Amino acid sequence: MKTIRQPISNRLVIVTPGSFPIPSGTSSSVEQVVQKTGEQLVKSMPVVVLGRKVSYQPWKDIRHGVSYQRVPYQGQTAYIKQVGKKISSLSPGIIQVDNRPRFLPFLRKRNPHALISLVLHSTSFITKPYISKSSLTVCLRDADVIIVNSDFLKRFLQKKVPNAAHKMVTHYLGVDVAQFTSKWSDEGIKSRNELRKGLDCEHRKIILYVGRLIPKKGVHHLLKAMKTIIKSEPSAKLVIVGSAFYGSKKVTAYVRKLVKTAKMMPKHVLFIPYVKHQDMPKWVRIADVFAVPSVGNEAFGLVNVEAMATGVPVVATRIGGIQEVVEEGQTGYLVEKDAIETELPARILQLLKDESLQRKMGENGIKRVDNLFTWKRAAEVRSDLYSQMLKATALV
């Protein structure tokens, strides 16, 4: 028998994981997505975002119309209890939980009348070691809707918990097109030239990687590809933006291995530590080709959209949700994971040697983003869903 919810307001309360502060330029992509969608959703409903308290942020503030309220963080269990207390004073119509299915039973027990939305960003928190299949099944019972960011992630979750399949919907992510502007525009060309000059790369052909330096991101494959690329294109330079952890310069054994490999090509590889998200557009503009050599199950891959919005062609692995973002032969190329050692350098070289193809694919990418992947569009889809859910309970 279907449970009938009776929310007492149309207020949306978003529960962030608590791993990073929000808003913050050094947080994970989850917090970035919450911030950007919240700023759009607040135009159609009151939005409160709950997150962890850090020393440099107040307990409460309002930014772009969104109310941010913070609680102490002393581990996940203590955090969700503090969040629960906050929610009891907010009378939400909808509670949106981002990427933490384990929070659902606790929140459902204390908010029986509210609608609960689970928003999943990756496979990380719906698989072991975070959660077992049986525990996940129990947790998902308490969600009224489960929002995923790709059809790949929806199929993945449906296979794990088939009895929750009817609750799942795909909502693509977006990009701030006012920030990630075309590298081919007058402003883009000026920004691109300034940073390239500062890096002493004015006459180099730049391959850009942006992301965490961990094995599943496949950076080692990209470095191996560079050995082939520079033989055919001596002016090529790989710029690697990122570190092993969000907002941290901590060096791991894997990072040391990458640096050791790069030292074999000292004039062709440059490491840039973690860059704040607000500074990322200028870095993307310097690229001739954007490389995403992931070998893990990427649910979406927001960096692909950011590159496309900037007019940079993407060469990425044909895995997970990436193949829903990058249009093969139109906005870039998709290489097979099993053939990455030959296809990755070949596709990158093909683009490096043909500026007209770079521009054609880059401009195709801009159009694709404008049609499918803006925060405005993402928020409209989310707002429509929430409005329909509230309407079903006569609260609109």
Automatic annotation (TrEMBL):
Which keywords, in A-to-Z order, does the entry hold?
Capsid protein, Virion
Q: Where is the Glycosyl transferase family domain?
A: 196-368
Species this protein is from: Paenibacillus qinlingensis
What CDD domains is this protein classified in?
GT4_PimA-like (cd03801)
Pfam entry (one): Glycos_transf_1
Task: Write the protein's name.
Answer: Spore coat protein SA
Stored InterPro entries: Glyco_trans_1, Glycosyltransferase_grp1
On the tree of life, the source organism's domain of life is Bacteria
Has UniProt tagged this entry with the keyword RNA-binding? Answer: no
